Amino acid sequence: MLKIQETENTSVINVNQERLDISIAKKMLDSLQDVLGGSHKEIIVNLRLVNYMDSSVLGVLVNFQKSVKDQGKNLVITGLSPSIRKIFELTKLDRFFEIRDL
User: Fold this and answer.
1) Is 47 helix (H, G, I), strand (E, B) or coil?
2) pLDDT tens string 2-49
3) Any residues with CB less than 8 A from the CB of 95 and at least 6 apart, and which?
4) pTM score > 0.90 for this model?
């Protein structure tokens, strides 16, 4: 589900699943938390392949963002499809997360 690539200061988490819903939310949070323990200053979550996301996964990302900030690190969300970007805009999470285009 998640493929992690690491460089000196960055962890890139590629989400290799089209559909993100409650059935994988807990597993996703656990995997994200594992990355948080590293020494990287920036964590990038690439959602390029995702075309569906429910509120449980949005909650996972919000909680993860809080954990990242608490450790003085930076979280970036990237690779948003138009439909996923719309979800972030409607929920105003585009103001909560740093979103970058690929």
Assistant:
1) coil
2) 999 998 899 999 999 999 999 999 999 999 999 998 889 999 999 999
3) none
4) yes
Name the residue type at position 41: K
Q: Which CATH architecture has domain 2-100?
A: 2-Layer Sandwich (3.30)
**Calpha distance 33→75 (Å, rounded):** 12
Residue type, 13: I
Q: Report the alpha-carbon distance of residue 20 to residue 59 in Å, rounded.
A: 12
Considering only CA atoms, which of 21, 99, 19, 13 is closest in space to residue 54?
Answer: 21
Is the backbone of residue 92 left (phi > 0), alpha (psi -120 to 50) or beta? left
